[in-house]
Amino acid sequence: MSGRERNVMHYGGDYNPEQWGPEVWREDAALMREAGVTMITLGVFSWSRLEPRESEYELGWLAGLIDLLWGHGIAVDLATGTASPPAWFVRKYPHALPVTAEGVRLEFGSRQHYCPSSPEFRAATARLAREMAKRFGSHPAVRLWHISNEYGDHVTECFCPVSAEDFRRWLAAKYETVEALNFTWGTEFWSQRYGSFAEVEPPRALPGPGNPTQQLDWRRFSSDALLACYRTERAELPAGVPVTTNFMSMMRDLDYWKWAAEEDIVSDDAYPDPADPLAHITAAMNYDLMRSLRGGQPWLLLEQAPSAVSWRSVNVPKTDAQYRLGSLQAIARGADGVMHFQWRASKAGAEKWHSAMLPHGGTASRGWARTVAFGRELTRLAEVTGARSTADVAIILDWDSWWALELEEHPSQLLRWRELVRAWYGPLWEKNITIDFVPVTADLTGYRVVLAPNLYLTTTALAARLESYVAGGGHLVTGFFSGLVDEHDHVHPGGYPGVLRDLLGLRIDEFWPLPASEPVQVELAGSVYTGTLWRDWIVPGTCEVLGSYASGVLRGRPAVTRNASGSGAAWYVSTLLSHSGLADLFGRVLAEAGVPSGPAGAEITRRGDYTFVLNHGDEPVAVPLPGFDLLTGAAYTGVVGPGDAAVIRAGHADE
Ligand code: GLA
């Protein structure tokens, strides 16, 4: 892809050919061509057809289908086919089925029924991947390898004895001695000392609160165990064709920084809920993450629903405008293709009520008309492929800190990292600020503003880097319950907020979290806003107090602060300010940092020489810019109608 595939804005979807016969395949190939499909994902759930009996491979039917598609000019994103082990596999290797924390072995009959640490599962997937690579590795249609499918979708962890043994190996490699493990896990607490690694088990169902460091290591191990499955397959694939595995947007359980480093191209499956009027803002945030995972490299939207899904309690379809704007939004935020689940709607099985590019109603349906129309429209955006965005503002995303934040027995159990970051992202989205997500190891110097809605786990090394970032002129904004523990979830000594005390120029005497139904008032720059979730009893040091609590027991005490340091400043927000409160605060920060806000009223993003204007609202929006609108093929008018979009190439209006 990227590079090799410049100028193809991919369009297509998952195709599950085993649900149909060769006659339908031929009809589908012709219809795909009619719709402008450039690439099809094949084989995701084909294992039982590709290997009907152990080590007996039947790939001929797939070869015929790939030839058929290629004959119609359609490339293939070829799955290794390992996402759903066949019945013969689980009957022969019943211990490869996953086990829950409560000890329930999950049965065959759905998908993803495997223990990530199972040596039999890994060996079987390696063999199938090897056969696939041998047979199809040099086929000109194969443009992308798709390993497994949505790792962690249903099974993110397994508690069986094999996983326990793998966990112990992982721990022994990390700690070397059981004394080191005892110290790090704080096992003097509640008499949890281990005499040897052999005594350690996964954090299964427990009578009371578990050991937090054990749980944090378990999260790390579980992400690594699935990553090892990915690596096992990857090792079988030939060099030359890029490799991906489809991510699940901003997913908690897998450390996607680690994963993305082992892919050639990031791909995402995105399912914004059409019933949620703000779903496009969450989608924008997820797409920014996908663009960021490999440092701004274009990515692929590998799955989205053409309309309704089948797995929510109520599955509302997409309007034409929601579909089109949602698809263009992914491209605006770095995608070089829009793919779907799935090409043809299933007749049977758990997903038969899921929408498809070719609905049950066939070519007579509105859905089909939309599939054809968007396929045509997408060809107009081919020149956008490969273009990159730049950002002045970054948000720190650290999976270690996310996992640690959501452990048990905290001052509040209501904190969810994804909700905190979404709350902060909203007002920035409204101001059309481009956001990069960055890991804790990133070089921050290129960003004028760095946001950390929460950094519960902050290492001393990170704190030092944040200090030099601010001293060098950066603006750091951090939220409550940050800076407090090290990488082992041990409290930093000396009081709160731990290693961020000096940088923020304050002390927190005590956390004062808010019950769910009890908001607090905060006075900030002459306005009063609502705060939820959290409060701190702040004792200001060198910081300036920007906002104070205006109600409740902390009335009159600081709520929002700013500490100048060098030529930058570190800002602290001790409650979850309402949307308008955050908009006000961020407005101040951005102005001080010299980050210009875009015009409001529509979603506006830049990608290289192209400006995308997406109007999610009900009124026309004027965004005057000189240029050529790729979507209309004419000079850009400066106005984008409700539910409409423009993709403007900078320069002369007359092309
Ligand atoms: C995920 C899976 C697909 C399908 C869709 C349905 O994205 O990867 O196989 O189940 O969900 O929305």
Q: Keyphrases for this structure?
A:
28 strands; alpha/beta; nine-stranded parallel β-sheet; binds alpha-D-galactopyranose; 655 residues; 30% helix; TIM Barrel
The tally of helices reads: 17
CATH superfamily of the domain at 51-264: Glycosidases
Derived structural class = alpha/beta
Report the portion of residues in β strands. Answer: 15-25%
CATH architecture of the domain at 51-264: Alpha-Beta Barrel
Distance N to C terminus:
28 Å
Give me the count of strands: 28
The largest β sheet comes out as: 10 strands, mixed
User: Average pLDDT, to the nearest integer?
Assistant: 97
CATH class of the domain at 51-264: Alpha Beta
The spatial strand order of the largest sheet comes to 11-10-12-13-20-19-18-15-16-21
By CATH, the topology of the domain at 51-264 is TIM Barrel
> What fraction, in percent, of the residue positions are helical?
25-40%
Shape: globular
* Parts with pLDDT < 50 across at least 5 consecutive residues: none
Distinct small-molecule ligands in the complex? alpha-D-galactopyranose
Output the radius of gyration: 26 Å
Q: Any overview of this molecule?
A:
It is built from 17 helices and 28 strands. Helix 5 (119-136) packs parallel to helix 8 and helix 14 packs across helix 17. Helix content is 30%, strand content 19%. The longest helix is centred in the middle third of the chain and has 23 residues, at 212-234. The mean pLDDT is 97. Among the domains are: 51-264, TIM Barrel, CATH 3.20.20.80; 393-593, Class I glutamine amidotransferase (GATase) domain (Rossmann fold). The chain is α/β, with parallel strands linked by helices and 655 residues long. Strand 6 (246-247), helix 9 and strand 7 form a beta-alpha-beta unit. The strands form 5 sheets. The protein has a 10-stranded mixed sheet. Strands 5-4-3-2-1-9-8-7-6 form a 9-stranded parallel sheet, covered by helices on one side. Bound molecules: alpha-D-galactopyranose.
